[in-house]
Structure formats: C-alpha cells, structure tokens
Amino acid sequence: MYVTKGSGSNGINTVYQVGNAGSLPTLANAATAPITILPGFPTNLAKTGKNVNGTVQPIYYPFGIWFANATTLYVADEGDGVAADAATSTTAGLQKWSLVNGIWKLDYVLQKGLNLGQQYPIPGLPAADNPATDGLRNLTGHVNPDGTVTLYAVTSTISGSGDQGADPNEVVAITDRLSYTTAVQSTSELFRLIRTPISGQVLRGISFAPTNKEKDGTGEDFKPEH
C-alpha cells in the first residue's frame, strides 16, 4: 500500500509505503504497521526544505500516484499553490520515477502543454478569478502494446478566489514511452486537453470505467471490437 503527503507545512511531503513490503496491513496490525518513505524519495521537511543533514532541497507536493510496472512510478505533483511560483516550478506536473538497485530515481518531470501559471478564461466566472494550472492531482493510466504509457490526470489550480486547487479544472492526457529515462528522450511529449473546465464544477478524481473496447495499439484512441 502506498500513500502520499503533499500539502501543509508539517512533516515531509513525499511518497510512503504502509506496512511491510509484499503485504497489506490487516485489522489486527494496522495500528502498528510501519509507514516509511520509499527509498530515494524526498526526506526534507515541508516547512523548511531541510533534510536530516540540514541541507535544503526542493519541496515536492505529491498527490496522485500510478505504477506502470514494479519499477516505474508516475507521481502527480500539484504545485505549491502560489501563483508567482507556478510558471517556474521544476517539480510540478507529472514526475516519472524508476527503481534502480532498490532506490527510486527521478527520471524527469513532464510539463509541456500544461501551461503552468497561465490563466485561462471560464464562461460565467469573473475574470479576476480566472484560474491557472499549478500542477496535477489525481492520476490514472494504462500501458499500451507498443511500449508506451498513456496517462490521464486532473489539474490543480491557482486563482484569485482563494480556494487553491479547487477552481474549475481540466482533464489532461499524455503518452510517455515506458523505456525513456531522461528528459532529452521525452522532449516531444506533450499534454493534451481532453476535458475543458466548467464554471461551478471541480473535477476531483479520474478512473477507468468498464468497457468492451480495445486499445488500438497507439495509446491515443480506442476502437470498437471487431
């Protein structure tokens, strides 16, 4: 079982494992099940950015997570909720982590097409409250037969409304090649908008519904069975 802690100034914003590897907590042992940071993930305090050695490191804001396989983990980082920081954030968006010799390593962060920090208009919403994307929250995906992974996420927002993260948001998608491990390899990968924002509506999560359709092998669309 894996969980994230990615907001507030207390504790450590990172990805945690609940219980011992290979087993789930039970009713009998849940109260004493260990909660540990995945090896390689951030260990610095959310309030100061300092780790146990006193070194200041970037503060992460993980929200949704999705495993493509046992050694590839995608993490949706929602950003820090500060409008002035969104456009220059190096961690917000979709992070790709790989397990190498028992340690998780950050390969790269996908941001292209999210337009971080750029306001977008919403019909029926006052212009002063126009939101901008700050990062990503909930996340899901599927592995395609051609070696790519298609990921879907809801965006996190910032605006003048004061309700950071919960303004009218979007659903976006991106296709990543599973074998890529460097930012240079993923340069051409781009988020695309698949669900536009609507005034008065906030998208809280995303998941797949049962279907009798099959992937067409490109990771981009679906076609009826034949």
Could you explain the architecture of this structure?
With 226 residues, the protein is mostly beta strands. It has 1 helix and 13 strands; from the N terminus they run βββββαββββββββ. It has one helix at residues 83-86; strands spanning 2-5, 14-18, 35-37, 62-69, 72-77, 93-100, 103-110, 132-143, 148-158, 171-177, 192-195, 214-215, 222-223. The strands form 4 sheets. A 4-stranded antiparallel beta sheet has the order 4-5-6-7, with no helix packed on it. A hairpin with a 2-residue loop joins β6 (93-100) and β7 (103-110). The longest helix is centred in the middle third of the chain and has 4 residues, at 83-86. The radius of gyration is 18 Å and the shape is globular. The chain starts with a strand and ends with a strand. Mean pLDDT is 90; it is low at 219-226.
Helix content: under 10%
Secondary-structure-derived class: mainly beta
**Mind describing the biggest β-sheet?**
4 strands, antiparallel
Low-confidence stretches: 219-226
Q: What is the straight-line distance between the termini?
A: 38 Å
Give the overall form. Answer: globular
- Please report the total strand number as a whole number: 13
Count of helical stretches = 1
What would you report as the Rg, rounded to the nearest angstrom?
18 Å
Strand content: 35-45%
The SSE string, one letter per element, is: EEEEEHEEEEEEEE
Quaternary state reads: single chain
| Strands in their spatial order, largest beta sheet | 4-5-6-7
Can you give the mean pLDDT?
A: 90
